[in-house]
């Protein structure tokens, strides 16, 4: 069963997929998906999300951390964080689990 297309809500749990390796390059993170052999790059905020999802975390917890650490409006962060997570799930970098299974 694929976790990639699950609907995201604040109770969703997100965790880095096991079949990848990553490297911190200062203000950016580079991730190699071992399944498809493709490299992905993340900016500073995306890199922080990547650090946070190394252990399973609820979307609400990730959002709170980012709001504390970066100057961003909550109304902007929520949709952008969901879009990033959906993209990362679609390419197999993270798994999205519903709140009941977390």
Dominant shape: globular
Named CATH topology: Outer Surface Protein A, domain 3
Structural class call reads alpha+beta
Major sheet characteristics: 3 strands, antiparallel
Mean of all residue-level pLDDT scores: 89
First-last Cα distance: 16 Å
Q: Provide the β-strand percentage band.
A: 15-25%
Low-confidence stretches: 1-5
Using DSSP, what is the number of strands? 6
- What spatial order of strands do you see in the largest sheet? 5-1-6
Counting copies of identical and different chains, the oligomeric state is single chain
Which sequence of SSEs, written as H and E, runs from N to C? EEEEHEHHE
Report the C-alpha radius of gyration, rounded: 13 Å
């Amino acid at each position: 069963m694929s976790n990639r297309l699950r609907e995201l809500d604040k109770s969703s749990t997100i965790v880095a997929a096991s079949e990848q390796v990553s490297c911190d390059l200062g203000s950016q993170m580079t991730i190699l998906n071992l399944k498809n052999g493709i490299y992905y790059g993340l900016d500073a905020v995306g890199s922080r999300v990547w650090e946070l999802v190394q252990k399973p975390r609820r979307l609400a917890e990730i959002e709170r951390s980012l709001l504390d650490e970066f100057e961003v409006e909550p109304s902007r962060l929520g949709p952008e964080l969901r879009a990033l997570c959906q993209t990362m799930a679609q390419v197999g970098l993270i798994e999205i689990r519903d709140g009941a299974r977390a």
